[in-house]
């Protein structure tokens, strides 16, 4: 299959300039199109989809700056090069802002034109290859998500169900040693399932499949529900879990399900990494355009050199006293992605031996008067 020759469109109101550019480019084995003004040039951009456009700045009617702008709207991957006899630093800067790849002042030599065209076409090639790789990566990710969801997760769910039936004695009594081994196997499977579920959450967040509809939500209501649900987790360590001061305005623009996931993760960590008879205090504060939720614990804390990395995927702080605490290393990464998808941010401050404070900032929501 023959390789498609690049197409160069020359837009200039001077016939001599159009002809000379075409002669130079044809000798390079390139295909050319011409247009005597900006309007015709833009029509040819739409029709021929050129690889590179040479455009004069000073033309009657639609000028070169407008052509640059509208060419990028038609196809942002088309390379545009400005040619002009009125070259100034200001016009060059403005042209670059509007998407021009390069700037060639008139008069120019054939070699100068060849060099700039070659550079521009190489840039075009790299841009298209990058775009192709991005699409291929997206296709692979989507296929992998489907494979993990259906071909890997589904059999594991079935195996877990079989284990539950066996452990429950529904198919006969299970001797102590065998039961112990099955319980260990089930626990390992449960950890694997948690990892798969967390990974799927990350994949969905990366592909932008998180928030379909934002609506005003009461953070106090979400936090109270989570505190009730998590009360059993505090029993072993005699941890105090409480909701402290709350601002009168606690409404944010959010997605309830994913925000529950954020605060569930933060509160669970605050309990797990706490000290016996420790405390987890949650407060809600109004801060200009944001509502800030603080989750503060009196736990073992995080060293300063670990803080820049704790939101990275699979990053887990290695400390002797918490090696037995289970986790996938994805929880905080997921929380950060969800908060950022809401247009908010998450911050952490911590001190070894004294505890940590995670603060989530979310945009304020407006009251839904239709439900009043």
Overview of the structural elements:
By secondary structure, this protein is α/β, with parallel strands linked by helices. It has nine helices and twelve strands. It has helices spanning 15-27, 38-48, 64-74, 89-97, 110-167, 176-206, 219-230, 256-272, 331-341; strands at residues 7-11, 31-35, 52-56, 79-84, 102-105, 215-218, 240-246, 251-254, 279-287, 290-297, 345-351, 355-363. Strands 2-1-3-4-5 form a five-stranded parallel β-sheet, sandwiched between helices. A five-stranded mixed β-sheet has the order 7-9-10-12-11, with helices on one face. Strands 6-8 form a two-stranded antiparallel sheet. α2 packs parallel to α3, α5 (110-167) packs antiparallel against α6 and α8 (256-272) runs antiparallel to α9 (331-341). It is elongated, with a radius of gyration of 31 Å. The model is unreliable at 320-324 (pLDDT under 50).
Structure keywords:
372 residues, alpha/beta, five-stranded parallel beta sheet, five-stranded mixed beta sheet, 12 strands, elongated
């Amino acid at each position: 299959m023959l390789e498609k020759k690049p197409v160069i469109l020359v837009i200039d109101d001077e016939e001599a300039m159009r002809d000379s550019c075409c002669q130079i480019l044809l000798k390079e084995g390139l295909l050319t199109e011409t247009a005597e003004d900006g309007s015709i040039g833009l029509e040819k951009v739409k029709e021929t989809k050129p690889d590179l456009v040479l455009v004069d700045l000073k033309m009657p009617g639609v000028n070169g700056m407008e052509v640059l702008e509208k060419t990028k709207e038609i196809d942002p991957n088309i390379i545009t090069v400005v040619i002009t006899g009125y070259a100034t630093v200001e016009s060059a800067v403005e042209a670059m802002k509007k998407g021009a790849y390069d700037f060639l002042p008139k008069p120019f030599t054939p070699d100068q034109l060849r060099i700039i065209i070659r550079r521009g076409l190489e840039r075009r090639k790299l841009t298209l290859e990058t775009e192709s790789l991005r699409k291929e990566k997206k296709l692979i990710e989507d296929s992998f998500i489907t494979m993990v969801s259906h071909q890997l997760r589904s059999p594991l769910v079935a195996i877990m169900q079989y284990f539950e039936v066996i452990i429950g004695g529904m198919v006969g009594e299970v001797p102590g040693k065998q039961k112990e081994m099955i319980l260990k196997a089930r626990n390992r499977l449960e950890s694997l399932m948690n990892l798969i579920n967390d990974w799927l959450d990350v994949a969905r967040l990366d592909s932008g499949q998180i928030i379909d509809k934002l609506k005003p939500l009461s953070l106090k209501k979400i936090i109270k529900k989570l505190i009730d649900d998590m009360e059993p987790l505090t029993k072993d360590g005699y941890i105090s879990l409480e909701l402290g001061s709350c601002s009168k305005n606690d409404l944010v623009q959010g997605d309830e399900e994913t925000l529950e996931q954020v605060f569930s993760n933060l509160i669970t960590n605050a309990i797990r990494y706490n000290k016996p008879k420790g405390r987890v205090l949650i407060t809600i504060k109004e801060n200009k355009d944001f509502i800030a939720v603080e989750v503060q614990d009196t736990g073992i804390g995080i060293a300063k050199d670990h803080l820049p990395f704790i939101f990275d995927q699979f990053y887990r702080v290695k400390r002797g006293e918490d090696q037995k605490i289970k986790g996938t290393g994805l929880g905080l990464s997921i929380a950060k992605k969800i908060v950022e998808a809401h247009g908010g941010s998450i911050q952490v401050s911590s001190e070894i031996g004294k505890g940590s404070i995670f603060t989530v900032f979310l945009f304020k929501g407006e009251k839904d008067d239709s439900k009043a």
